[in-house]
Amino acid sequence: MNFKYLLLFLGATALFSCSDTLSEIGASIQPESDIVRLDANNISLSGRITTFKTDSIFSKTNTALIGSLNDATYGEIKCDYMAQINCVKSFHIPTFSPYKDSLIYATITLEYQNYTGDSIAPMQVSVYKLNKPLSDQNIYSNVDPTGYYNPSDLLGTKTYSAKNIDKTIASASGYDTVQIKLKDSFFKEFVNELKNNPNTFSGNDSIQKFFKGIYVTNTYGTGSILKVGRTSLNFYAMRKTLDGKKDSVAVCVAYMTNSEEVYLANLYKNNHLDNLILSSTADSVAYLKSPAGLSNRIKFPMKELATKVGTAKLNGAKLVVNTERVDRTKTVLPTPPALLIIKESDMDSFFKNGTAFDSKKEGIATFNSSTNTYTFTNLSTMFSELLKGNAVDDVNLVLLPVSYTLDASGNMSTIIHYHQPSGLKIYTNYNKFNLELIYAK
Predict the structure, then answer these.
(1) Which residue from 260, 264, 358, 439 has the fewest beta carbons nearer than 10 Å?
(2) Are 73 and 272 spatial neighbours (Cβ–Cβ below 8 Å)?
(3) What CA–CA distances, in Å, run from 28 to 25, 38, 235?
(4) Which domains are seen in the chain, by residue range?
(5) Which of 362, 337, 338 is nearest to 349 (CA)?
(6) 251-266 burial string, b = 16+ CB within 10 Å, else e?
(7) Per-residue H/E/C for 116-147
(8) C-alpha dihedral over 244, 249, 251, 252, to 10 degrees?
């Protein structure tokens, strides 16, 4: 045999003869007490989740909903809103030539980004003048609007369908619009105040003494709900164009917007939810509906968690929420983009105070359309914190639809209730709804 190949053969033999003991070297010199063993276990949440009505939610958001629809599966929802005017200091009526220009009318314009439901369903929206100012107490979705307006203070109405829309004139936003022409009496009153008492429009505090805002309500039809990104008060003038013809042009615009200085209150009313609540227990399912509508309560067994984990460190806790694939013959509502799980007693303060996401107190999961699941992958910190404060009594957790925004680093910066129509059916039988645990001993 060639001497070179003989050396290669002897070297390979020596290498493989040592391989059986290489993996044992670390274990042989590591103290038994330092060896980390990972155990896995499950906690079944089947039978511990119930569907309940969400009477109201904290409704502070930058968008408004208007319309009504009756879904075959999730029942009826009606959406209205109240809004104040955000009066900037530059708001004014331009100087007009009496021979060329003249103010002719005003509108409330609803600029909407998208809609849910039937695009050709005939709908009607009405706008009323508020006679009482909004406040912090009005930012929940169950506020009764009857105490804030008089039915005799109707400013205007408009019949529309989501597809049969007006083109945006007041801005270059590109949104579709519903333009509601206001009564001449209000138009004249507003213009006279602008011309005769310009100090009224020096800021939000002063203008709200004169004009407290509007109530926008669906007064006819069911079938669609618009997502209104901006509501504006527009004044139009008849102006001569370059070719000498006259045309109406928006010359003065004030926006109804939800900023730190003014309020926008969304009003949501859901009906026909009782059957979903009754069938959820019988059929081992749970239902979610937004906005407001339905949420889920999980009665979590802290004693069972403490028994399984003991003194070990909880390294992982995962919950996969399996949902039914949407059947468009049964519902027009889409699935919510994300779900939040949070201690029920912390829920109101979380949304009201704008608390940043904290893995010690809540978990969030986004929708996976390919698997029809929401996967909470990192709940170990949350349940470890719960164990510190309570290892005996059951804790009520709430599962509900949310939306979120990302900061420049890609982290979740804002989490709010999901202010869009959505519906979800969750499977809660034993094999579909378990908390998976991994802990180190």
Answers:
(1) 260
(2) no
(3) 5, 19, 85
(4) 39-54+273-440 (2.60.120), 75-270 (no CATH)
(5) 362
(6) bbebbbbbeeebbbbb
(7) EECCCCCEEEEEEEECCCCCHHHCECCCCHHH
(8) 160
Coil, strand or helix at 188: helix
List pLDDT tens digits, range 90-133: 666 665 555 455 668 889 999 898 999 999 999 999 999 999 98
Separation CA 439–CA 441 (nearest Å): 7
- Residues 404-418: pLDDT tens digits? 888 888 877 789 999
| Spatial contact of 63 and 75, defined as CB atoms under 8 Å apart | no
Cβ-contact 69, 76 below 8 angstroms = yes
Q: Which residue has the higher pLDDT, 250 or 168?
A: 250
**What tokens were used for 438?**
């991994």
Here the tokens at position 349 are 């303060």
Q: How many angstroms separate the Cα of 47 from the Cα of each of 50, 264, 286, 338, 416?
A: 8, 39, 10, 23, 28
Q: How many residues does the chain have?
A: 441
Answer whether the bond into residue 291 is a cis peptide, omega within 30°.
yes
Identity of the amino acid at 380 = S
